[in-house]
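Hello K.,

You asked for the raw outputs rather than the summary table, so here they are, unedited. I folded two proteins back to back in the same session to keep the settings identical. This is the first:
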Amino acid sequence: MTGLDLSSIAQFVEGFILLDTIRFTTPAAGKPVFDPATGRYTYPEGDLIYEGPGAVQVSGTPGGISALPVVTQPWSDETTSKYIALTPLSAPIAERDSIVTVVTVHAGGDLALIGRQWRVQDPSNAATISVVRITGLDQIQQTREASS
């Protein structure tokens, strides 16, 4: 019995859904460095894991956002925002806590997404039958000052 060949479906999905460029990096290591040009401290860049075609989408409904106390956060109203990253199967499996950044968006896409970041919640999903790699994400919350 011949197995199911999903390669043509994977090509379709890559050509019609994975339209943006996304980047996976390791979390920044080291102490922040003062940037005299901006007057702010910045963290060094993490190591590049993947940069290429992809998409970031809300996972479920926007009502799925929950606010729970998180040990590593200084306040308890920090939300957990469920998103997923979609990448080709050729992309590496992302490790927990990797940082995902939208680098470019397709024509007509939401330009406000450029530079927005998410943290990988768990290693990318893996399955014996897949057409894209799916990675669970949590949006990195930004203060108004940091996002301006």
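The second followed immediately with the same parameters:
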Amino acid sequence: MTFSEILQATYPLPPASLDKMRALAEYVELPKGTVLFRDDTLAHHIFVMQHGLARAYARRADREVTFWFSEAGAVLVSIRGYTERAVSYETIELLEDSGLFQLNMRALQELYRTDVHLANWGRVLVERVWQQSEQQLIARQFRTAEERYADLLHHSPHLLQRVALGHIASYLGITQVTLSRVRAKLK
């Protein structure tokens, strides 16, 4: 997907607004293991992923809790930094070498103030993040480990080939031992 196609998939933009976003974007190639956002740091950019894979997680005591995985076409953003200009809750790291478009958050916010189409794009972006968060919360509260794993298999089976099982288990809210049992049961 091109940068413009990714933006348009979030919210349809007229050519003039797309041009403003293209002018703001800087393409970067970053290696696996790069941390885009750190949970103790204020975020200054958002990223639009052209290719690669990333995960968001929080550190809790002696473990990491994975919130989500994102692939090509995703907009990577620390929502707390984006909406409140506050330190991130999560760390977002690349799980593969990735190509991303980097956008300065302050410059983007200025575009929102001057272009209603871009302001709507930003609103829809946040709405989608909230919707995904709600879906994940409901799944963790009301679905069994087997149901959550079956859902992952149905919607994103390729992640099992690209993501370490420890990260998958964390995302599902279970231990690796439980994940092994679930996988054996569903085969």
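DSSP finds nine helices and eight strands in the chain.

Happy to rerun anything if the numbers look odd on your end.

Regards,
P.
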